[in-house]
C-alpha cells in the first residue's frame, strides 16, 4: 500500500469517525487527524521491516519504551543496598497484579542465591515427628492459588511527621500483589504433628540475615502458605526463591523468604524484628507490639507527583489502589477538593480478601488546582483514618503502620505534589 493512495482516505475516515463520536475533540483525535498527523501519514520503520522472529527472546521483556517502569530506591534511607528497600512503581501499573519484575524488594542481607537442589525445609521443635523436606518432596503436597498483597509495615513510614517524599512509588510502593501457588502451612504442620503445647511457629530464612519471626499457631493453621510460585512462575530470587512464607494480610516482615526452617514453640521468641524493629513507639514511651494485621489503606496512583496531568483540562481519569489485611474493600471514596465533596469511586477487577483492589474516578478537570484524596472502607466496616486522626492515637514517634489518608496537590499546570491538609 502506498502512502499517496491510502493517507487521504484515512484522514477523511478519521474526520467522519470523530464527528460521529462527538466526544473525540476532547481527546484531540479529530484535530490531530485534520492536521495530517505524521504518525498517521508517514510509513513507520516497523511497517517496512521484519521484526525479530520467535525465539529471539526466549524469556520476554517489556518494550524498551517502558524502561521507566522500574523499581527505585531512596538512597539516603539506608546505609547500604544489601540491607535496604526499593519501591514498586505503582504509578505505572494498572489492574491489581504486580508484575514479578517490579515487585519491591526488602532484604536484610541481600537476595540469597539459593540452589533449589540443596534447599531443605525443616520442621522441628514441639512436634511429634521432626521432618525435612526437599523441594521435590514439597511438590507432592496439595497446593492452592491465592492473590495476596504483601506490604512492609514501614510503607509510608517516612510520612508520619509530615509530607516528605514526592511520588506514590516512594510514599506507598512497599507493596506488591501477586498470585501465589503454595502448600497450606497447616498441611505441613499436621504432617509433623504439633504437640498440644505448640502455640507458636518460628519461620527462619536461609539468607545471611537468618530472618526469624514468631507467628501464632492460629494464623499458621488458618491461611498461611509455603509458596513456591508467584504469578504462575517460580518465585523470583528477590522474593525468596525457591520458597517463601505467605502470611496473608499481615506485615511483610513475617513473610520469611528463602524459608528453610519452621520451629514450633510454646511462646514467642522476641527476636529483633518483633522488639527493636516493627513495633510502634507510642507517645508515653511504651511500644505497641505484635501489630501484625495491616489496616485498610488506599492511595491515588494517578495523577501523582511522578504521573502529572499533562493533557490540560477536560476528560480526566483518576485511579488508585486500596487494600485491607482484614478482608475486601467494598468501597473507596475520592475527593478532588480536599474533602469538601466526596464521591464514591468505581471499583474494577476482582475483589479478593487480603488482595489489592483497583478504583477509578473519571471527571472533567476545569483546570483549577485540586486536592486529591482517597479513603478506603473495608469489609469489617473500618474506614481509613486521616493522618491527624492517626497521630492523635499513636503520637509522632512511629515509623510503622501508617495507613493515613494521602493528599496530592495538583496545580494549574497539572503538576502534582505531596502535601498535607491541616
Ligand atoms: N529471609 C528473609 N525474609 C524476609 C526479609 C529478609 O530480609 N530476609 N525481609 C522481610 C521484610 S522486612 C519484608 S517487608 C518482606 C519483603 O518481601 P519482598 O522482598 O518480596 O518485597 O520480606 C520479609 N522477609
Ligand atoms: Mo519490611
Automatic annotation (TrEMBL):
The cofactor(s) it depends on are: Mo-molybdopterin
GO biological process, alphabetically ordered: sulfur compound metabolic process
Keyword Chloroplast (UniProt):
no
Q: Which domain of life is it from?
A: Bacteria
Task: Supply the PROSITE patterns for this chain.
Answer: TAT
Pfam families, per this entry? Mo-co_dimer, Oxidored_molyb
Checking InterPro entries in the record gives: Ig_E-set, MoCF_OxRdtse_dimer, Mopterin_OxRdtase_euk, OxRdtase_Mopterin-bd_dom, OxRdtase_Mopterin-bd_sf, Sulfite_DH_SoxC, TAT_signal
- What GO molecular function annotation could you give as one example from this UniProt entry? heme binding
List the keywords (alphabetical). Metal-binding, Molybdenum, Oxidoreductase
Against PANTHER family, the record matches this protein to: SULFITE OXIDASE, MITOCHONDRIAL, SULFITE REDUCTASE
Q: What is the protein name for this chain? A: Sulfite dehydrogenase
> Which organism does this sequence originate in?
Brevirhabdus pacifica
Amino acid at each position: 500500500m502506498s502512502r499517496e493512495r491510502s493517507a487521504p482516505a484515512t484522514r477523511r475516515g478519521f474526520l467522519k469517525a470523530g464527528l460521529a463520536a462527538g466526544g473525540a475533540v476532547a481527546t484531540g483525535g479529530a484535530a490531530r487527524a485534520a492536521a495530517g498527523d505524521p504518525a498517521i501519514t508517514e510509513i513507520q520503520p516497523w511497517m517496512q521491516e521484519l521484526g525479530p522472529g520467535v525465539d529471539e527472546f526466549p524469556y520476554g521483556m517489556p518494550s524498551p519504551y517502558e524502561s521507566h517502569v522500574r523499581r527505585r530506591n531512596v538512597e539516603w534511607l539506608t546505609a547500604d543496598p544489601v540491607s535496604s528497600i526499593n519501591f514498586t512503581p505503582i504509578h505505572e501499573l494498572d489492574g491489581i497484579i504486580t508484575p514479578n519484575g517490579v515487585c519491591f524488594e526488602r532484604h536484610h542481607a541481600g537476595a540469597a542465591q539459593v540452589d533449589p537442589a540443596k534447599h531443605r525445609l525443616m520442621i522441628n521443635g514441639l512436634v511429634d515427628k521432626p521432618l525435612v523436606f526437599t523441594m521435590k518432596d514439597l511438590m507432592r503436597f496439595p497446593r492452592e492459588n491465592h492473590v495476596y498483597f504483601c506490604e512492609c509495615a514501614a510503607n509510608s513510614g517516612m510520612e508520619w511527621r509530615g509530607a516528605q517524599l514526592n511520588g506514590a512509588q516512594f510514599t506507598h510502593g512497599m507493596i506488591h500483589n501477586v498470585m501465589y501457588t503454595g502448600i497450606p502451612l497447616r498441611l505441613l504442620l499436621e504432617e509433623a504433628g504439633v504437640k498440644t503445647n505448640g502455640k507458636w511457629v518460628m519461620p527462619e530464612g536461609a539468607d545471611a540475615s537468618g530472618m526469624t519471626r514468631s507467628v501464632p499457631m492460629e494464623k499458621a493453621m488458618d491461611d498461611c502458605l509455603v509458596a513456591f510460585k508467584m504469578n504462575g512462575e517460580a518465585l523470583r530470587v528477590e522474593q525468596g526463591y525457591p520458597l517463601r512464607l505467605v502470611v496473608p494480610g499481615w506485615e511483610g516482615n513475617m513473610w520469611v523468604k528463602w524459608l528453610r526452617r519452621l520451629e514450633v514453640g510454646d511462646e514467642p521468641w522476641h527476636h529483633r524484628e518483633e522488639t527493636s524493629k516493627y513495633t510502634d513507639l507510642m507517645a508515653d514511651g511504651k511500644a505497641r507490639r505484635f501489630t501484625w494485621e495491616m489496616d485498610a489503606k488506599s492511595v491515588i496512583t494517578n495523577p501523582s507527583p511522578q504521573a502529572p496531568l499533562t493533557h490540560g483540562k477536560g476528560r480526566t481519569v483518576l485511579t488508585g489502589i486500596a487494600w485491607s489485611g482484614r478482608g475486601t474493600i467494598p468501597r473507596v471514596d475520592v475527593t478532588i477538593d480536599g474533602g469538601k465533596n466526596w464521591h464514591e469511586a468505581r471499583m474494577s477487577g476482582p475483589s479478593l480478601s487480603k488482595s489489592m483492589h483497583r478504583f477509578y474516578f473519571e471527571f472533567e478537570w476545569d483546570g483549577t488546582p485540586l486536592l486529591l484524596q482517597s479513603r478506603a472502607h473495608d469489609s469489617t466496616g473500618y474506614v481509613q483514618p486521616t493522618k491527624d486522626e492517626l497521630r492523635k492515637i499513636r503520637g509522632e514517634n512511629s515509623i510503622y503502620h501508617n495507613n493515613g489518608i494521602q493528599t496530592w496537590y495538583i496545580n494549574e499546570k497539572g503538576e502534582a505534589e505531596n502535601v498535607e491538609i491541616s
